Request: fold
Amino acid sequence: MNQRACETYGARLLDLVENALHAEEAEEIQRHLAYCPACREEYEWLVGAKVDLEALGDSLLVDVPHRDLVPGVLDAVRKLTATPEQAPALRRLWWRPTFTVNWAAAAAGVLVALGVAIAWWLLSFNANVPERVAHGPAEGHGAPSRDEAPTPLPGTFQNPELHLAQGTELPVEPTAPPSIIDETAMEATTPPDLAQLTIQDVIAARRDGGADNGPLQRLTQWASLTQEQARTVAERAEASDAAIVGACQALAPEEAELLLLKVVGHSPDDPYLRFALARKTSERTTTATEPVQLASLHDLDPDNALSYYMEARLLLENGNLEKALAMLAQARALDKASAYALQAAAYREQALVESGMDPQAAKLLTALTAGAEERDFLCGLGDTLLEYGKYYEETGDIEAARTIYEAVQELGMQLDEGAQFAQEELAGLDIQRAAIEMLRGLYVYSGTQEDTSELSAETSELVASIESLVDFFHALDNLFQGQVDTQFFVTVAELIMQGGDLGLFDLL
Amino acid sequence: MEEAKRPVNAADRTDEELVASLCRGDQAAVAALVARYQDDIFRFCLHYLRNVERAQDMAQETFVRVYVARARFDPKRKFRPWILCIARNLCLNELKRKKAVPMESLEEYASTARAASGEVLPSAADSPDEQLMEAERRELLLKALDSLDEESREIVVLRFFERMQARAIGEIIGSTEGAVRTKLHRILRALRERYAPHRKDL
Reply:
């Protein structure tokens, strides 16, 4: 008996019983069986067990009467379509969760009002929304495909319009439906001559930005190279690796991937580069190399939970729920998550400088817009994961839905924990808000009083965090009102680029 | 007569075409899908729940869920694994919800099923001795199955009772074909330890 051969063939014996092997392989195993009594015995056992088990299954169904389910199902479907508001308990599963539960009513009012306020503020920063639609689960497991129009979820700030329109039951109607991006205004803006831009221009735009969206949109636009500009920066013979990486942020995935791979060769241990690669890969339809980059990222930055969530999304996309849930459990065991906004900003600053922008203007511009792009990405990731949770909820897998929702809520908390920029914290808080809404909807159907009470406490904490973030945004606005000293803003920019904007007021 | 005509038309259409009609709000497609799958789904639920009434409720709810989640059906996929996946989820929820009530073991279910059918030993065997041996063998196998954990029992039910291939099982339980094969191998090894020695004696 050859122990090794027995192990190899042993695993295929059932396939042999089931005729699931190619002829050559089957013959090879048959030859082994001819001289190996142990494997032959196992094979014979499997043949008998298969017969016995199938016979057992059949015998359990003997005389089970035929049931006509058509009338019952049609009746239920008619009720659903006729009176959605008074539908039976099951219907609640696919209600959009709302803040109408009594205990939450007071907190919800504040949250919604603040949410609306922040959303308004955010409208100014949405000029740079990535092209990839955030909602876009799966071609693998029956969940919606990438191209499919998503079923509305509460929506994070990835899509403020969705949030405003559907996220919660608004206590008051917003005064005017805010347009996310003023397309006509954007089109009308002449592409800036980056070389002419001064730090004073940046300060002025930010100063006016508190009251008017236009100038803030302009800041975002200035801070983002066009594809053309990015290509020019990256193709220069003397371009630094940092500038190339920064330029990649503005390039199409295929183009950026090639450049990033080259730079990774020079700095294989830089986790941001792996992250940037994984993101660019994920923007393409085929994502064969994304897992490779994510695996490297796990190794290079094992304490950062984000790569695990990204991998969980991939696994869900491929229909591997089991592994996805295991991956989410791994992600949840970590303390924080970060999308490397600080590193991304530093690289972008270098790209702006090498594109010919005044270094001081580039630094302040980058500092003031850092984290906004990461916020979009993070909210998109949260939305996608929630979309999968919703899919499993609707198809009856409450446990999977709950695990996914809770993991997304945890992602929000981890981002909050790891945030260096207000924009990242905002993503964290908004992801938590969206996850809590989904969980609330789930608990209405399947939760306990304890679950609901816990959610109530978490909502209160969230409201407190949002309040302090709103204070921060006001303070940032005030910083730019009345200050005229350029050197002051140079210092502000340096401080932000050293450790993010959240610690700014402790330092000043 | 229109009622009689509808299934004939629907019979020519694939599952996926029927779901596409469902998405456009065609309730006749619901009836067609139910008529086509009700026996399969009811039997599937029965394997999980081992109770005819509960299986009927869950089978009905499965079709309602198909209607509700119809917009999320990926037309690139096959309908059958999807609906089985929904039925399985609902059955597992139902089992969890009823966990307070001691769960009927396969063995108990088998005797209930036999008593209900009035058949003492449903068997194709000829002689009374053979019948007795087969009955004993089945009792032993039921005992061995009951001693497995829930996940293993589920895989056995899907593979041997529902006669599904590893790949289809993977699609339903959210795992891969390879992982299912590995598990199946492990389960059958465990089953052999518990069942084979007694089987030999018979």
